[in-house]
């Protein structure tokens, strides 16, 4: 193998009579390198976007939602202890969801009202990190009327700010002389949050768990669901099964974030796969250049190959010479692409000079996450394509007949 490697290096590094072949080899290296770099940067951005989007999405919900079919979760403190004891669970909080109408002046606006327990909610939800005005803790310290925290878009539509009051129309009906009418509750705005996700910022509001229980007719020890946060979000299906087993004896069900948002992340994965295939074409072009370079080299070195075979070199040795030469081109191109791609991704992550419109994306800057599994896959795929490109030229060189080759010299 040392003999073949020496010949392969000499063919690459020594000056050739036909410089056109050297130019093709250089462009082969550059093509492979640029393809690998583009793949690394694109996959890093896609991974960063998926992770950031998932964190934003789960910041307002949870990894697992536990409920009781046809009923509220009774005695939720005891049920929370059971769920918290399940392996993989890091935090549990009770929560009440309801669709209500909010109005200040003019047409009411339909929103999703969430009643949260302030003592445990921060372990599951991240809304306290998204506050742009006021504090989440003030939900239970509002002066006079109970407190409410609104999404930024919702507050803007209603034309309210800190200290303003809003009317909440709940679906719980009460009897009157004119029939059944919805209950109306006056709440004071104590905070505004902004997640940069328009759907949530325009249709979400938070109140304290006790205020939600009072407005919606829940008993003091009852909640609609238990929101659960896990150590590993990807393990949600397995942990959900353990939670249902742990709460046996009740008609309990558990829904994971994958069940509720699986179509969104499936679309992101499909888009990532599509970009991977498209950008892989750049590497493929570089590998085709390797085929061209080696075929031309075989034609140029026909006399040298014939002399080597006359001196005792076997067909396998000749084949290995050109396999090694193409592999060196592929390895250099792949290494160049790795360095360029990783450095570019790290620069994007560190300096964040690409800004995104916050009204379109749930983040302000381009998210970048280097996944070493993706880097290894890209490097292996690129080098594999380059190696496959050497098979035909190497096989053609090994089939040369010394007598026929020297006859035409």
UniProtKB/TrEMBL annotation:
Annotated localization: Cell membrane
Lineage: Bacteria, Pseudomonadati, Thermodesulfobacteriota, Desulfovibrionia, Desulfovibrionales
Transmembrane segments: 20-46, 273-299, 320-348, 368-392
Entry protein name: Lipoprotein-releasing system transmembrane protein LolC
Pfam families, per the entry: FtsX (PF02687), MacB_PCD (PF12704)
InterPro entries linked: ABC3_permease_C, Lipoprotein-release_system, LolCE_TM, MacB_PCD
Keyword Electron transport: no
Membrane topology summary: Multi-pass membrane protein
Stretches assigned to the MacB-like periplasmic core domain: 25-244
GO term, biological process aspect, one: lipoprotein localization to outer membrane
Ranges of residues in domain ABC3 transporter permease C-terminal: 277-402
Keyword Acetylation belongs to the record: no
Gene Ontology cellular component terms for the protein in this record: plasma membrane protein complex
Keywords assigned by UniProt, alphabetized: Cell membrane, Lipoprotein, Membrane, Transmembrane, Transmembrane helix, Transport
